[in-house]
Known about the structure:
Among the domains are: about 5-140, no CATH class; about 265-350, Alpha-Beta Plaits (2-Layer Sandwich). The termini are far apart. The strands form 3 sheets. Strands 6-5-4-3-7 form a 5-stranded antiparallel sheet. About 15% of the residues are buried. The longest helix is centred in the first third of the chain and has 38 residues, at about 100-135. The protein contains 11 helices and 10 strands. It has helices at about 5-10, 15-50, 60-85, 100-135, 145-170, 175-195, 195-210, 250-255, 280-295, 330-350, 385, and strands at about 10, 15, 220, 225-230, 235-240, 245-250, 260, 265-275, 305-310, 315-325. The chain is of the alpha+beta class and about 400 residues long.
Amino acid sequence: xxxxxxxxxxxxxxxxxxxxxxxxxxxxxxxxxxxxxxxxxxxxxxxxxxxxxxxxxxxxxxxxxxxxxxxxxxxxxxxxxxxxxxxxxxxxxxxxxxxxxxxxxxxxxxxxxxxxxxxxxxxxxxxxxxxxxxxxxxxxxxxxxxxxxxxxxxxxxxxxxxxxxxxxxxxxxxxxxxxxxxxxxxxxxxxxxxxxxxxxxxxxxxxxxxxxxxxxxxxxxxxxxxxxxxxxxxxxxxxxxxxxxxxxxxxxxxxxxxxxxxxxxxxxxxxxxxxxxxxxxxxxxxxxxxxxxxxxxxxxxxxxxxxxxxxxxxxxxxxxxxxxxxxxxxxxxxxxxxxxxxxxxxxxxxxxxxxxxxxxxxxxxxxxxxxxxxxxxxxxxxxxxxxx
Length: 388
């Protein structure tokens, strides 16, 4: 038997040649899917490059699209490979009475194609969001910095919902129009089930309209203090001073008292210095006067500093230190505060005073008249009147 006869040999209704073509198409698609996805992503990038505002985002674009394009291209090769073979039943459509195996395989393939297409479009939305993010960073306003991720996530949610409805209609034959109309009946139940999600969504719109804070602001919500890094349509992400990443629901951000520390004109420093009770009034006056002069003439503070001998404590004489630093940056603030603290220590030491710490003095007093002790007894002698 020569090779022509071997190729013409039929097996399961198809020749060996057709099976080899089928395997060749699958092998070609598996080997060259990465190369073809790179070429296709390069062509797509040329179409969207005009909107990139001069930024070289080709590597980011390819990184986003290569993997989903590989899956989509392989599914197309799989479709063309199966077209080579002959089947007892038409594999390109489902008819009433078809076997379960054929129906299951065909619908599974359709689901994978829709998922792959949705994946590609989602990655494309990510790239468009990346372009607008670069544009937003070049503007002085911070509003666009938070609108870009919000609308990117919102578009992706709508896209997933549209793909799911398309899958129900195209793959499973569900009447999508009737389903959407029927949601009006069960809309109340769905609203109650998604009550918290709807509240967070409405809270996000409140944040965008009122703008109590924007991305980059230092805020304090309850006991939490940190910098806002992202405002989504459901939650807000905050980077704390300990560098941890906290995600808070948007409803929490508008229901709790929120202090936007970035909007302050100054940062306040307030504490007491505790001097020993041996410090004289002249020393306290001199220390308060020198600290006040230093605070008033410091280049990073304003003229609203107050240095006052405020309290007579249980263990010390307390002098209040209150001043405001002209900066919003935390690192600059603690640098200025350190500089002021060194100067305060220097002024106290120069005036001969000392810092107090909690102490307790115990006074022992001996009796003025002690009865004499006899040699026979260690106890005081009894008086005659006591013997009667």
